[in-house]
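Re: your question from the hallway

Yes, I did run it. Sequences:
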Amino acid sequence: MVEDEESLGYLLSEYLGMKGFQVTWAKDGEEALELMEKGNFDLAILDVMMPRMDGFALAERMRINAMELPFLFLTARSLKIDVLKGFALGAVDYLKKPIDEEELVVRIHTLLSRLIPEDRSMEQEILVLGQYQLDCKNQKLIFEDDFTTLTTREMELLRILAINKNNLCTHKEILIKLWGDNDYFNRKSLNVFITRLRNYLKKDDTLKIENVHGKGFILRIPNIA
Amino acid sequence: MVEDEESLGYLLSEYLGMKGFQVTWAKDGEEALELMEKGNFDLAILDVMMPRMDGFALAERMRINAMELPFLFLTARSLKIDVLKGFALGAVDYLKKPIDEEELVVRIHTLLSRLIPEDRSMEQEILVLGQYQLDCKNQKLIFEDDFTTLTTREMELLRILAINKNNLCTHKEILIKLWGDNDYFNRKSLNVFITRLRNYLKKDDTLKIENVHGKGFILRIPNIA
DNA sequence: ACAGGCTCTTAATCTTTCATTAACCATTTT
DNA sequence: AAAATGGTTAATGAAAGATTAAGAGCCTGT
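Structure:
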């Protein structure tokens, strides 16, 4: 929750805590962005009217920093233009003040129940990567008649890159999925694994793991017509 | 849409149809249930106050009949107890009358994008700039078969200009959005980036980044008839 | 219990990238 | 003409990334 106002912030964080949510209260946009870097949140509640960086600007910055965190706005400004702007920025809800705490709670529950169930249980077993094949279940990377046995981490990383081939996978996304936490050391680990995968994949020189500075990686696999 | 009132029902179904939705209008709960039996719907919009069977009762019946159709309520009764009851029944949203049609549209879009999993259009933002395409997620500026990887700042700046194509983007607006602060040095930085973008874009000489002295910049893209 | 593989993390070091700043010139406004 | 604003190019330094090697756990079998 990002809320500059002491009284409302206190009231809401206490109330939501009482209702079983784990709430972290940031008092301005800067603080919020720092906290979000760590990454372990399910939903952000942003006040629109804040002195230094308003909620809209914060949402914009979140997008720029590639935070894939759903957010909703709280605001007294119920002008139509603001509501539309809010949704245009990608908000999942837009609540007008005065906030009714109980309503907020049920709306959060509704949103979370829609947002969290992201089960990827039905994944493909064998992914084709250029001249390679990745057998996820057996953790084999197959090239012609030969194969390498990958470690669990290597396989999971390659699998994420492969599923999103030719599309950016952000550090955050990868780290949260594989390490459960986005910090300095895990990020270093990730680099080591990227190097390993690059080595494994160099038999097919059309495959490239590209880096997008400050953002993440892209496994580039040329599309053959 | 289930709405007993002639005028509002007509207005809304027309408006939503105009906005590209395929709308079926049921005038009471019974009719709604029949239609739902056979029809393939994505979302139900239920008025709460209806004479024979109200929206809540209808939602209850839908649950009993195991219809797994997401629904939202429209109502003039904004009593807290009603809002809570609405969500308790499984509503995905609860909108208070008077309805603002535009807000309704964006809320429906937001809901559908969350509810229909295959919708990846949100992330795949690709803007067309003359002969170029800007792939925002991957930070690529594509020209024919070739592409350049842009830095984050370059991409964000070009994105803002592109979204407001042929319209002025003020320095202030840009600086607040990308740098979070509007001062002398950031402004100098902005100039450097504008120069870079002009370089990237010169393969299509119909594209121009114009300066409006003392105000800001305009990305001019001729509209082809 | 402990030796020997594995696997992952941490460290150390080197390379690359990119936003910023500076320096200087051009253009526009007053 | 002076002052302010805008444009371009290049240098700089901090941050991010790449690579290699060493260290720390963790199984497994004896």
